Amino acid sequence: MLRSRILPALLLIFAAASLSFGDPTLVFSPSQWKFGSIFKGEKIQTVVTVKNTGDFDVTVGLLPTCTCNTATPAERPIKAGGEGSFVILYDSSDDTGITRKDFIVRTQPPGVAPPYYTTTGIVRSEPHAGGTGQGSQSATSGPASVSGPAHAVTVAYYYTPGCRTCEQFLSTEIPRLSRELGVSIDVERKDVLQPAVYKELAVLASSRGETLHEIPALAVGNTLLQGDANIRKEVAAALKTQLARAPAQAAPSLQAEVAAALFSERLAALPIALAGLIDGVNPCAFTTLIFLLASLALAGRGRREVLLIGSLFTLSVFFTYLGIGYGLFTVLRAASMVSIVSLVIRWALVIVLAVFAGLSVYDYTLIRQGRPTHMLLQLPSALKRQIHASIRTRVRAAALVGSSLVLGFLVSLFEFACTGQVYLPMLAYLVRMRGGTVALGLLLLYNLCFIVPLLIVFGASYLGVSSGRITTWFQAHMGKVKLGLAAVFAALAVFTLVG
Q: Beta-carbon neighbour count of residue 145 at 10 Å?
């Protein structure tokens, strides 16, 4: 009895605590580097301090968008409540006039900092120095005009407009390569300071098994070159390789490849949505729902009262599960910041999912044999009795609104011992996703799908369908639910292995 009281209390404390977790917020000092006025060719540096005002550790990286900038170190971990510093160096050799340079701020977990750190100032020409000639250079974004074979290659160049070395590469190197190779080179310019373009580049690097570590970047067929020096060194070979491809062997277009990679990311929502729907009708949750409907009928509640109670009960279940899920997601994400812990979570998740898939199939065989009470993945008898006792008490209470909300909260906590078998692996899977915002959106999707069966059942009850008919339907389909759970566990295991 003591244990049965301690578990709900601990879950209650955890659910409340989960709502207090917040993402870390990074504060840069100075908020941007205004270096004033310098002469062309000067190399200057400053120290930028980053303070982590959040609740857990975060890794911060500064990715320069121009070869004229460097940040040391490239990235560093910053503990919760602590701070770290970066030395930023700017080489003005290729710039004149009003200048703005940006660092892309990358964090793990993502989305906890401003997207860019900006440096601004004025670069004056050297005293008594003649023009550099760069002002007369023109960069073309279209195909170069060449004589010779009418071959054409399309490349994508990811850079920041205004980067002098980038503009010089486009205006001189591209035409030179076009003449030497006898090919028309069509350059698609991509501004990485646009969020959609930066995401496109990150997805492109990931699809090639690489991490994005330097800008500018050049995509030529299946090759992605990063950094100005590496691009200049390897671009000719990459173009020749692309030209040597037979038409039937040509690589898919960049747009098609990126679209396919983004679609693959969105495809990850399918097992999450399916997991939420199936978890909403698993025996743990559904038998409790049927008992609630039967108790409402015995208590003499009318159809309108049933609809009101069902709506409030569903609302309470949604927010309770969302709170628990967000709390666990936050804890797991913080733990995954340590690489060895992340590796342990990954393989433990795969093993747990495989075991649960096998147990779900075993439960299916028990149902087929007419022994559903012997299932392994179900609520312990003590928790079932406690849930039923709470329902009997609350459905007779005079305070209809308050009782319905409290009942949804308590039932959610009690049922978590069983529904957590799906919820926890799903959360661990979300932690491994690339984007924190995307993961939280999928967490919301899961919980919305989880309450869909509740809404359907309460709606059917309002329309006059008895709890007996719902019970009969559920018993006829319980085996399919177990097979569905096995498929969800297996799918999450596969996504975890190949993600």
A: 10
CA 33 and chain centroid, separation:
31
pTM, full prediction: 0.54
Is the domain of 160 the same as that of 287?
no
Contact status, residue 201 vs residue 212, Cβ threshold 8 Å: yes
114, 249: one domain: no
- Asked whether the beta carbons of 106 and 71 are under 8 A apart, the reply is no
Which of these three, 263, 282, 306, is where a domain ends? 263
7 lies in some domain: no
Identify the CA nearest to 311 among candidates 398, 404, 383: 404
Q: Which tokens sit at 367?
A: 């149902």
- The domain in which residue 258 lies consists of 134-263
Contact status, residue 77 vs residue 63, Cβ threshold 8 Å: no
* pLDDT at res. 267: 59
Per-residue pLDDT tens digits for 325-376 = 888 888 887 776 666 777 777 788 888 888 888 888 888 888 888 887 777 7
State which amino acid sits at residue 380. P
Same domain, 365 and 434: yes
**Structure tokens given for 474:** 């559920």
Structure-token pair, residue 272 = 């999450």
